[in-house]
């Protein structure tokens, strides 16, 4: 597990927060704890919260009609997590959110989130930053999944995520790379030989 990230310190590093902004933000974000493997949101439920990961690791995943699980996203300390479409549009989520490790989150409800972004320019900037990062990630991820071979996916993932690789099972990493666990294992072995 990586070092905990203070929510307030994170916000201060990224944005200039007035004391009022800081108080307003802290008032509306609730500290929550989740155990390893605990589900925060089931697919089919409406996602009503935006989470900041202070400690631990989350993932979002979905299960296709054949029962195969696909991990969409890993969310470590210092990052935000939600199922954006469900959160924004108040529609059933296509994905599940799960704690991969014991986790401490700072969460805000959709109702309080709307209050906070209408009452604070800093909060609007934070949300804009979250949206931009999410969009950039999705574009990069689509290119990653559609242009790289299984071996290249494994090499790229391990190069860019040395810390995460030690915290996540091979099976879950394989589902993120959209390859079988056997292929993932074979590609890893090929790298070390």
TrEMBL record:
Official protein name in the record: Cyclic nucleotide-binding domain
Coiled coil feature spans: none
InterPro entries: cNMP-bd_dom, cNMP-bd_dom_sf, RmlC-like_jellyroll, WH-like_DNA-bd_sf
Residues making up the signal peptide according to the UniProt record: none
Domain spans labelled Cyclic nucleotide-binding: 34-117
Pfam families in the record: cNMP_binding (PF00027)
